[in-house]
Design brief:
Structural class: alpha/beta
Low-confidence stretches: 1-7, 9-31
Shape: globular
Mean pLDDT: 89
Oligomer: single chain
Number of helices: 14
Strand order of the largest sheet: 1-2-3-5-4
Radius of gyration: 20 Å
Amino acid sequence: MRRLSVLLPALLIAAASVAAPLTSPAGPSAKYEMQITDLASDFAAFWARTDGQPLDVRVAEFKRDIGSRFPAFYGVSRYGGARTQEEQDAIIRRAIIEFPEIRERYLTRSARFNTDLPKAVSSFTEHFPDFRSKLPVYVLHSLGEADGGLRSLPGNDVFFFGIDSMVRLHGDTDDTPFFHHELFHTYHIPKLDECAGGPMWAYLWIEGLATYVAKALNPGANEAALLLDLPAGAATRYRATLADSLAQFERVADSTERTAYLDLFTRAGTGPLPGRRGYYLGYLVATDAARTRDLRTLASLNCNQVRELVVSTVQSLRTALPEAQ
């Protein structure tokens, strides 16, 4: 998993905590286990233990007691010189200062994580019984980085969940669709390792199909639970600008530029169209493709098939809009 799984984070970045087995009880053939390292509860304990101490002391203790246990994530070497230790310390300082705003919700979500994720793994393997992942899994305070996903870190690829960002971004929604979305990435992305260079059509398919799978496995999930309305009101903007968004995507479908990715798949975006619209466009493409294909077939399409499908579906969706008539 060294191409698209690496490019996703690379484009964005230019009590003991023991690895506990998380077993999916989805029948006798499903003997899959995820090895989870829990640093999320350790952060909460660290915060409570150091409450009242000078902030610089707390930052130093975080680096000693938490950061040292996962230096590949919390250290600065992963940024290749794009972030200094002083900048990282400022991010740690802000996370400590702001933690009281989310503390109760963080503790609640952290406490139920080891129940909620196994349930999601179990229901996921009912649909994808061949699912296996050798990636180490970390649940942690992400210092505001993300709610979860794949990361290529120095020495290893990992799968992580950021409880702090889950609290801030997901609100009180059920996390099961989110877990299914991320689990599907670990299942699906290796199948597209040959999509050299990470073109935008590949990312659109990766995120769109993962979103569609989350919906298919959770039919009652609304746009907020599918993270298609992030921030609130985004889904309305996606629909209002759909014609322009589809036309713009056609122009960058084969691009491998970082700016194209940031524009389509980050909340800030880089242009006049709404950020993160790539998820919505990809969801529309996957939904259309699912009219004639089942989930396993969609997940097994190769790079040539994916490109042809994405390009042709985007074109047909655009020409079908009233504005194109």
